[in-house]
Amino acid sequence: MSKTPVEHVHARLDHDEDLSLLNEVSMKTAGVSRLEMCIQCGSCGGSCPSEMDMDHTPRTLFAMLRAGMREEALLSNTPWICVSCYHCVVRCPQNVHITDVMYTLKGMAIREKKYRDSTAPDFSETFVDMVEKYGRSYEFGLATRHYLKHSPLRMIRTAAMGLDMLKKGRLSMKPTTIEGMDQLTAILNKAKEMELAHE
Amino acid sequence: MSDYIFYPGCAMESNAKAYYDSLMEIAQPLGINLQEIDDWNCCGATEYVGINLIPAYSLIARNLALAAKMGRKTIISPCSACYLNLAKADYYMAERPSLGEKVNEALAAGDLQYTPGSLDIRHLLDVLINDIGLDKLKEKVVRPLKGLKVAPYMGCMVPRPDYNNRWSDAEHPTELFDVLKAIGAEVVDFPGAATCCGGHMTQIGPETAYELIRRLISSAEKSKADIMVTVCPMCQLNVDAYQGETNSHFGTNYNMPIVFFSQLVGLALGFPPEKLGFGSEVTSTEKALAQIGVDIPESAIAEGKNASRKDFPCRFACEKQPRRKARPQRRQKHE
């Protein structure tokens, strides 16, 4: 038999509050995240332009982190639907770095392979691959690789647009590689070493 | 002439070439002397930071470190995402010294280092208003854009979250409005001025993006704008190139051109449209510009000339796509 709402609340209060997930996310976020300061006011969700496509509002997601609901929080599509517009950030009365917390959750979900749809994580990883290979972004390569894998039909639909962009000099068939690729690679390798130690 | 370090960002080399070309034309008469960072790299957009934190900030900081060696203090970025990333890296490296130290340890592997706070990171629009000034801009205007109704679209990443306290208001910034007024255009009341274009969602969650693009264009249309004006390559790309897809998704027939503010400034300063990148847009500006007596020559429009809204940009499958109605009003928070 399913629990009543009151029983659910009590179930959560049975054990001591465990803030380890909240702390972990906070520590992995850039700057001083202030995630612990969230007062659950809901300004974030109310300000979000893409909230209609999220399975949880940012407020709910942060409550889930506080409740230690790791699986549910990392499986949420919310960070992937975040458009990085920072509307929530400027309205948050507690100055929580909400957009950056979303980035942290994306990274954690990728590492723990906790996502329902691989389109967005794959797009980020392809983008990063291109940057690590050439030092600059390479739209043609990115779009081709991404569409081929995830939506070949859409690639056909957007072919006309792509051709027009090519004709107008707005899409380059060849990537631009920076001269200091060795230097950039050395920097990124060192940074990745530290990132692993950081976890 | 004022000397600046210039960080163009990847989009200026490809999809936002019109922004680059027009900036190069107007810089000289406005007294902006740009020296590009030698061998700069991508800022990582909104992608890299979602994968790996320290590498993402090290990627951005390589540019800051290269810039800091140039002997000038102010760095200009015309791209909103690049501007935000540079400003954010500088801010967070100082806010959380342990992050700053790690980034510098990574930079050291490439014989570089960066001290947060040593550069003044600015967006082109901010420099135009606060360094060059509206008075100087007005003095240089030889062809006021009288009669052109423009919607000033500033987007999100320039006024928000404003790490270096540059902007008038995070939600209702007036800067772009002021510049467009100074060049004689008629600026319409545009509630969508600082809302989001969908960013990278056009690639990974098109339905979310189409809705945001629809809200923007519908807001500009209701304001009776002839043209939307942006300060960001991503905004221009989304509203311009994905307008056709948005139309087929909703069964709408929007036809709203969107150009970079530097292109309109260039027109007002008397440069011919073909030098300012006009003609490279997907949604034609011909009709809007004809109202102020500006014709885009055939050569500039190249082969994309007759690609009208009806059959472009997705003439293959548009008709077969299920048409979705606009979302109910109560869901539209930012109109």
From TrEMBL, chain A:
The keyword Iron applies. Keywords: Iron, Iron-sulfur, Metal-binding. InterPro entries: 4Fe4S_Fe-S-bd, 4Fe4S_Fe_S_CS, HdrC_iron-sulfur_subunit, Helical_ferredxn. SUPFAM superfamilies: alpha-helical ferredoxin. One of its GO terms (molecular function) is metal ion binding. Residues 28-57 form the 4Fe-4S ferredoxin-type domain. GO terms for cellular component: plasma membrane. PANTHER family: HETERODISULFIDE REDUCTASE RELATED PROTEIN, IRON-SULFUR-BINDING OXIDOREDUCTASE FADF-RELATED-RELATED. This is 4Fe-4S dicluster domain-containing protein. It comes from Candidatus Electrothrix aestuarii.
From TrEMBL, chain B:
Keywords: Oxidoreductase. InterPro entries: Cys_rich_dom, HdrB/HdrD_reductase. Transmembrane segments: none annotated. One of its GO terms (molecular function) is oxidoreductase activity. Residues 5-86, 153-239 form the Cysteine-rich domain. Pfam families: CCG (PF02754). PANTHER family: COB--COM HETERODISULFIDE REDUCTASE SUBUNIT B 1 (PTHR42947:SF1). This is CoB--CoM heterodisulfide reductase iron-sulfur subunit B family protein. It comes from Candidatus Electrothrix aestuarii.
